[in-house]
Design goal:
The structure holds 2 protein chains of 2 kinds. Chain A is built from 9 helices and 18 strands. By secondary structure, chain A is an alpha+beta fold. In chain A, a hairpin with a 7-residue loop joins strand 4 and strand 5. The model of chain A has no long low-confidence stretch (mean pLDDT 84). Chain B folds into 2 domains: 96 residues, Rna Polymerase Sigma Factor, Chain: A, CATH 1.10.1740; 86 residues, Winged helix-like DNA-binding domain superfamily/Winged helix DNA-binding domain (Arc Repressor Mutant, subunit A, Orthogonal Bundle).
């Protein structure tokens, strides 16, 4: 029999338990339903009392946030609607035909849409493919994959670790590009009215503009970009791990000198960085640093690892020796 | 008897925002993050309101959605994997419990208000003082201990005792499904104490 004190329950409800205390609470919970009732009912009372005084402020804030999310979605629809009205009509006809055909072919399959708004989301698909969805992105996929191929759609940015299955190709369709793979790791950026790109980390992928059959095959370390202005694809060498740094929040570098490390940061943040002459240009570093959304925070972290400091001067960063 | 979706959504929102906010806050311990999480969950819910069966398990669905997002957020913070796993396991228990317990049926602010008013009046003096300092004045247990010149353990014991009493009140309420609602004005909780 595990026994826990009432003070410990109070601490649990207060969120001030240590790791060990938390484990003790868990073990105690497992013992009887009565324990669960004691803990969770008390916690519920605390939740209700704790939110009583500010209830109207909480309600107002959350309502405003929901409203903002709806507003964003409406704007997005309008923009899309205005630009692609004709395409929309064509698509609608296609959808009607497809639905007609699908209804006869197989039972209705529900589509699941995952929205990552304020934070990244990790999504596991029915075939156990793992997708990291970046902020402000939407991923849609069927509840169960069709028998021939695994098809999903993306609006935003996502990193895919596709489960290997050569019999069922995995297809990601974005605004302008479509990516077909069998099992691989890649990063896909696809936003309305912006150039799209795909960076490959492992395996092989075929990338083609939506509705056109003129794809390019990528090898690891390459990135293909699609220009919405010219409608053309271009392939460049890239540090694909860096393109995908946001998903695991790790910026890896191997035998890199300060110049190369700065190149990586420029690729990530698109902010000019200048290395002052006092910094040893030859010394190399291997390891990793943490990726933050703001360059400031990343640099602060980096300065703990390598003996430099940074300052900001009219829009660009200066790295100097410590 | 189907209401329009907007009315259904608003009813579900009003019945749940407070406890879901508290649920999120318990993990993330930051008001802004907690509000964001609850807003995300309700927004998603709104988009799918036609697909979701509103008669079964809507409360557990919402609790689970909030916890999933909150735990995701914690994963990006500096939290030990052991703690994260423990929190997750406890949450599974919590959701299992919510699905079958009647105390979660009371969501009406007036009902809760009334229950708490009665229960608070019955608290012993010291116990009530500690409870109010903690829940109304938002003091930490350690600060209350200093103010009242008692040990932190005693503070925690008082808080638990108060919660226990309130719990039995609400439990009592929950078991009497036909409660005649007395329309009490929305007096603030602080006033209850002053009285």
């Amino acid at each position: 029999m595990v026994e826990i004190s009432e003070e410990l329950i109070a601490r649990f409800i207060n969120n001030s338990c240590t790791d060990d205390e938390l484990l003790a609470v868990k073990q105690w919970l497992d013992e009887s339903a009565g324990n669960a009732a004691q803990l969770f009912e008390t916690e519920y009372v605390s939740d209700m009392v704790g939110t009583m005084r500010h209830a109207s402020a909480i309600r107002k804030n959350i309502s405003a946030k929901i409203e903002r999310r709806m507003e964003l979605e409406r704007k997005k629809r309008q923009r899309r609607g205005a630009v692609r009205w004709i395409a929309g009509v064509a698509a609608m006809i296609a959808v009607v035909v497809t639905i007609g055909v699908t209804l006869f072919m197989r039972p209705d399959v529900k589509t699941i849409s995952v929205y990552a708004l304020s934070s990244c989301e990790k999504v596991v698909l029915p075939d156990s493919t793992v997708v990291y969805l970046n902020r402000n992105s939407v991923l849609s996929y069927p509840e169960t994959f069709a028998s021939r191929s695994r098809e999903v759609t993306l609006d935003g940015e996502a990193f895919f670790e596709v489960k290997k299955d050569s019999e069922h190709p995995f297809v990601v369709t974005g605004q302008y590009l479509s990516v077909e793979v069998t099992g691989t790791k890649f990063d896909f950026v696809s936003r309305d009215h912006e150039d799209s790109s795909v960076s490959l980390l492992e395996g092989g992928v075929e990338v083609s503009p939506v509705n056109r059959n003129e794809g390019v095959l990528l090898v690891p370390g390459q990135r293909v970009s699609y220009s919405i202005e010219s409608g053309k694809l271009s392939v460049t060498e890239t540090n694909a791990a860096i393109d995908a740094a946001w998903h695991d929040r790790i910026i890896p570098f191997e035998n890199a000198n300060i110049g190369q490390i700065c190149d990586i940061l420029v690729q990530l943040y698109d902010t000019p960085i200048e290395v002052s002459p006092g910094v040893d240009p030859v010394k190399t570093y291997s390891g990793a640093t943490v990726y933050y959304e703001k360059l400031d925070s990343t640099l602060k972290h980096l300065c703990h690892t390598i003996p430099v400091e940074f300052s900001e001067r009219d829009g660009h960063i200066v790295i100097s020796p410590k | 008897m189907r209401q329009d979706p907007k009315a259904r959504f608003e009813k579900i929102f009003d019945d749940n925002y407070r406890r879901l906010y508290a649920h999120a806050l318990r993990f993330v311990q930051n008001e802004e993050d907690a509000e964001d999480i609850v807003a995300d969950v309700f927004y998603e819910f709104w988009k799918r309101i036609d697909e979701i069966d509103l008669d079964s398990g809507i409360v557990t669905y919402l609790y689970r959605a909030v916890a999933t997002r909150a735990l995701n957020l914690l994963r990006h913070r500096n939290i030990s994997p052991v703690r994260l796993e423990t929190l997750k396991a406890i949450n599974e228990k919590r959701i299992e419990f919510i699905a079958q317990d009647d105390i979660y049926d009371i969501v009406n602010a007036k009902e809760i208000h009334q229950g708490l008013r009665d229960a608070l009046a019955e608290l012993p003096e010291k116990c009530r003082q500690v409870f109010v300092l903690s829940y109304i004045n938002n003091l930490k247990s350690k600060e209350i201990a200093e103010v009242m010149n008692i040990s932190v353990r005693t503070v925690e014991a008082h808080i638990y005792k108060a919660l226990k009493l309130l719990r039995s009140r609400l439990k009592h309420l929950a078991q009497h499904t036909l409660v005649i609602l007395i329309a009490i004005g929305v007096s603030s909780f602080a006033e209850l104490y002053v009285k």
